[in-house]
Design brief:
9 helices; alpha/beta; Rossmann fold; binds coenzyme A
Length: 275
């Protein structure tokens, strides 16, 4: 478990709103923000998951609020934000984490399957930013968009998510440029493979996870707490001059590939050239 290097009160007095905050990486972000003092609001589709998550966060001594809803529904986004501000007084930190994913070759994917993921990941992020703007302008707040690294290369069976997350990264840059003058910072986090999450169950079925680990330069999956601490950093004054940046937190996974020839063969070739 990653240990925080930050003081536990650095986000005291702040209110954070996290979409998809009840589980997985996003709950890791919610826990980390709460552990550093922020009150937490969250939105997701499953009320019982939100309720349980908020009960756990309340044990950290912060105020919580939840509203069930789907980020694809712009009115639901607006209502959840308005009710959060009514309940907790303001909005300082908006984390867009709600996402949908499954593996599917593009030639098999229905147009509605493609649209569904773009609607959740990209349009959902826009909806929240759009209706969060007035509150973030008032608080000089910030946005953290949870992205991915899939679209940095061509990732098989992930055309739908890659397209959606490329759009999310474009929004991060664009809103950073347009809303910087309003005092709003907009950044992103691109997690790599994070263990024990719904995403990993979907993307690394069976024993494919073990094979994947061997190809990650840091040799392991990440922890939700490591994404959480990156969010704490971005939300803190340590990042007060950072905007429009998406921080990759993936143990070096996306930038490395397996050797083209086995090491044993390279060693044989070296021995031959010496001898
Ligand atoms: N392979 C191919 N197509 C799929 C699919 C799969 N595994 N799962 C869903 N689809 C298609 C459906 O067939 C449907 O298209 P159609 O109408 O042409 O048949 C379309 O996607 C919508 O599916 P539906 O199940 O109605 O959507 P939903 O709104 O109930 O669920 C999903 C959204 C599909 C993204 C679902 O996987 C989900 O709820 N995910 C949230 C959790 C998650 O993905 N977490 C990991 C984040 S990294």
């Amino acid at each position: 478990m990653a240990i925080s290097p930050f003081r536990s009160d650095i986000l005291k007095g702040k209110v954070a709103f996290i979409t998809g905050g009840g589980s997985g990486i996003n709950f890791g972000v919610a826990k980390a923000l709460a552990a550093h003092g922020a009150d937490i609001a969250m939105m997701g589709r499953r009320e019982e998951v939100l309720q349980q998550a908020c009960q756990e966060l309340a044990k950290l001594g912060v105020r919580t609020f939840y509203k069930s809803g789907d980020v694809r529904n712009a009115e639901a986004c607006k209502a959840a934000l308005d009710e959060t501000v009514n309940a907790l007084g303001k909005l300082d930190i908006l984390v867009n984490g709600a996402a949908g994913n499954f593996l599917c070759p593009p030639e098999e994917l229905s147009p509605n399957g493609f649209k569904t993921v773009v609607d959740i990941d990209l349009n959902g992020t826009f909806n929240m930013c759009r209706y969060g703007f007035q509150y973030l302008k008032a608080s000089k707040g910030l946005i953290i968009n949870i992205s991915a690294t899939l679209h940095y290369v061509g990732t098989p069976f992930q055309a739908h998510v890659s397209a959606a997350k490329a759009g999310v990264d474009a929004l991060t840059i664009n809103l950073a440029a347009e809303w910087g003058p309003e005092g709003i910072r907009v950044n992103g986090i691109a997690p790599g493979p994070i263990g024990d999450t719904e995403g990993m169950k979907r993307l690394a079925p069976g024993d494919s996870g073990e094979k994947m680990k061997k190809e990650i330069p840091l040799g392991r999956f990440g922890e939700t707490a490591e994404i959480g601490l990156t969010a704490v950093f971005l939300a803190s004054s340590a990042a007060s001059y950072i905007t429009g940046e998406t921080i990759v937190v993936d143990g070096g996974a996306w930038l490395s590939k397996p050797p083209m020839v086995p090491r044993a063969l390279v060693e044989q070739m070296m021995a031959k050239s010496k001898g």
